[in-house]
Amino acid sequence: MAKSRLFKVLSAVIDVKPGEEVLAVLLFSYFFLITAPFGIVKSLRDANYLDDLSAKSLPYAYLSALLVAFAVALHARLQSKISRRRLILSTLVFFISTDLVFFALFSLSQWPWLSLIFWMWASTFVVALTTQFWILVNDLFNPREAKRLIGFFGSGGILGGIAGYLLTWFLAKTATSHQLLLLSAAFLAVCMIVVRAIFSWLKANEGRFSVSGSGAKPGRQDSPRVGLSDSFRCVRTNGYLKMMAAIVVVTGIVSTFIDWQSKSLIEQNPAARANFASFFGRFNAGILVFAFLFQLALTSRFINRFGIRPGLMIYPLIILLCSTGIAVLPTLGFAIAIKGSDKALSYSINQSARELLYIPVPPDSKYRAKIFIDMFLNRFSKAAGGVILLGLLFIAGLKPIAATNIPPLVGISLVSGGFVLLWIILNFKISGAYVREVKAQLAKKWERADGVIAGKMDVDAAKLVVDTLEARAQSSTLFALHLHELARQNKLTPEIRSLLGLEPTEASASPVRPLFESDAALRLPDFDELIPPSMLDQEIREISSLESYQKLVGEYAGKMIADKSAASETARMELAKAIGFMDEHSALSASLEDLLLDASPRVFQYAAESAGRIRKREYLPILVRKLADPKVGEDARSALEKYGDAITGMLADYLTDADEDPRVRANAASLLGGIATPESAAVLLGELAEGHEDLREEIIDALDRVRSQRSDIDFSEEIVLGRFAMEVRKSGRAEAPGDLIPLFKLLGLIYDHEDIFRAYQNFVKGTKDSVAYAIELLDNIVSLEIKAQLFPLLDRFSGKSEGGDPA
Amino acid sequence: MVISKREKNNVVIFDIDGEIKRSDITDITLHQMVKDQLELGKKQILLNFEKVEFIDSFGVGEILASYISTHNLGGKLKLARISKKLFLIFQVTMLTKVLDIHEEEDSALQSFFKD
């Protein structure tokens, strides 16, 4: 994609991707044009109220938020009837009109309670317009995009606030305050043009960005149409959303307390009293200049670097500090500090972190939740704060309390501190819940195939069946030995019997029959019915343990082993198979060593099978040597697996011997992975620590195999991270996302294996959004050190998913 | 046994001719050939069994090892045109519970895009 000039300019300031620049600037402007008029309206709201009704009446203003909540409910109902585009434009028209009505009323009337009505209107103004803006942003971006861009949008809002407050500060000195309402109406009119431009752009770029209920497509109505009661039900039934709701309520209560604390102190200041409108304009502008700088320079970087939890914690911690300061020393300095921190941080880092909390919520729940939480509860919480404040002021006025001489401001600051502590706890909990929500967005694309196979079929039995079929055509002795083994393992099911042609009486009913009609000459009695398998096994063991049997068959074995001709291959196969039914003390078990050295792969197959059953240490060197032979390596491996953890030390010796055949060493690593004990893991980890380049994939894979079976085994973080750093350097040459698998396997050793592989699978085979969620999950679980190494690689491949919809 | 490779719609097809038995293998095994493709980033593999008469336990091991290697990397391995006799063996041994087996090559190829 060719990079536009706008992209080049913007990318120098923010982390914007090609194709996003126009939308980013439009959304920045949209937020600017909402907050600039609100800066004016808010300054006028506070000034008019203090002028007309004084700070003592502020709790009534806070309480009026309850009525605002009903206005919000009406808005929610409207949202359920019209498209997003029309709703936003209609809302702007409504606030432009009512803005002009207030201009007229303030020009004509001196009625003091008009300030209370204006307060309510102003509060509705901000909550309706900003919620609409953030719903749109949530709709358009996934977590990774939001993390990159949300700081930029937020700074647009803060810059708008600064412009509004500065205009109020300068113009309130010469113009009557209500004349500034004409200016706010003008901002909103320009905002309408920008909103129309956004939806036109979205329509033209529908493949890249889409918004539910945008109205971009005529007749498209896929957004949930909900009212306030649906929104409430949605939040009530979802633990994560309930926690978000609780945070908004507590934040609202604290914010009300802060407003009262600061205004109570500001009201007593003579400089502020001279011209409240000008004072609040200058004060708010100053706060927002700080907020803007914070937002532009720190918010995105802070959240990207430290994650969502510190992003949520910084705001309440600073408020707690300031509130404690007011309780100890109630001065204008602390008033400015607490109000300044409240506004600066709530508009910057807290707003960004809180919006990110909505990202993993499924779209239909998100709209409902935002209506209830951001619009209704946000206002309700201010009212609740007002009620609590009135109650506390009432208690402070009671004689016994008044007699303690504790100023109400100090008492309320202490109560506020208590609410902030609750807020911190809730933030801590929701940041953990956020990770779980992100994880829930990541479907597991596949399970480990070895586990799937083990769960669905018996591989050894399947191999035995096909070998039995082959033996059937080769020799009746070999066939009988196989049948005996099948019977011993209770594997002679009717289907297998039928497949092997063991049920001539039911032949006509068997679907298998026609397949074997051509070689129907071979017929064996139903020996497992004549003699029960357990009795037959006992019988065979007794016979084979007879000294005379061992002597006679030993002589026969000697002859067969000496005869290396192809003609005696079947006899050697029979012998190798038969020894497997004897115990380790039988003289014939020694002959197995010769059979393991037989040049015929088929003889070796049966000898290895028997070796795995008898498990004498003498067989081990031969079996290990055969690991390097592609024809029989798998048979040797299967036999060695049967030895279990008893051969950990021996495998360790082979693995760490640099002069050994690489195929033997690779198989030793794999076998150690299969053994999956703390000892085998320690051997593999030790080899990983050596940092050798050969066998690195095999060792990492074996460690991953251990981890997938034994989550209780701990791996040294130092060793794993050392290797991780080496793999990152190698991954510079990676050509596809799948090439990064060693990095994920290493991370799986020190983090939750399931989480890491869920992230890997979605990164490799996900859609654009699930890739973003995968990275977001990693962002929240791995350390800063790992993020610094891994994320540049992930960013390189995040648009190159191997599956799913790249758009 | 002879194994030849071709590609169709980004799917690597191995045409296997002969029996997959330990006594019949050449220098390079089926599993090794599959792994070579996986290393090249080709993760959609189809085994054409039209000319496979029989497999022994080595063959079962080769198919399952190929399946594990492919699926653990997020790929797909399927089988097509398997004989009735082999299919029956696969059914009885429960291999059909694990492997995705198609009657025809075209339907197998289409199924890669449906997944």
Structural overview:
The complex is a heterodimer of chains A (807) and B (115). Chain A has helices at 5-11, 21-53, 58-63, 65-79, 84-108, 114-140, 143-171, 180-204, 228-236, 239-267, 270-274, 276-306, 308-328, 332-358, 363-397, 399-402, 408-440, 449-456, 459-474, 476-488, 494-499, 513-516, 527-530, 533-544, 547-562, 569-579, 591-596, 601-614, 620-626, 633-643, 648-656, 662-675, 678-690, 696-709, 717-730, 741-750, 753-765, 768-781, 784-797. The relative contact order of chain A is 0.07. The radius of gyration of chain A is 38 Å and the shape is elongated. The model of chain A is unreliable at 213-223, 505-523 and 803-807 (pLDDT under 50). Chain A is mainly α. Chain A starts with a helix and ends in a 10-residue tail after the last helix. Helix content of chain B is 39%, strand content 26%. Chain B has one domain (2-110): Transcription Regulator spoIIAA, CATH 3.30.750.24. Chain B has helices at residues 30-39, 57-72, 84-92, 105-114; strands at residues 2-8, 11-17, 44-51, 76-80, 100-102. In chain B, strands 1-2-3-4-5 form a five-stranded mixed beta sheet. The chains are: A mainly alpha (807), B alpha/beta (115). The A-B interface holds A 445-446, 448-450, 452-453, 456-459, 461-467, 469-470, 493, 495-496, 499, 511-512, 515, 600-602, 605, 630-632, 634-635, 735-736, 738-739, 741, 761, 764-765, 802-803 and B 21-23, 25, 27-29, 32, 41, 43, 54-62, 64-65, 67-68, 70-74, 84-85, 88-89, 91-95, 97-98.
Q: Estimate nothing, just give the exact number of structural domains of chain B.
A: 1
User: Could you spell the SSE succession of chain B in H and E letters?
Assistant: EEHEHEHEH
Q: Name the biggest interface.
A: A-B, 46 and 39 residues
Decide which structural class fits the backbone of chain A: mainly alpha
What is the second-level CATH architecture of chain B?
2-Layer Sandwich
Record the strand order, biggest sheet of chain B. 1-2-3-4-5
Strand content of chain B: 25-35%
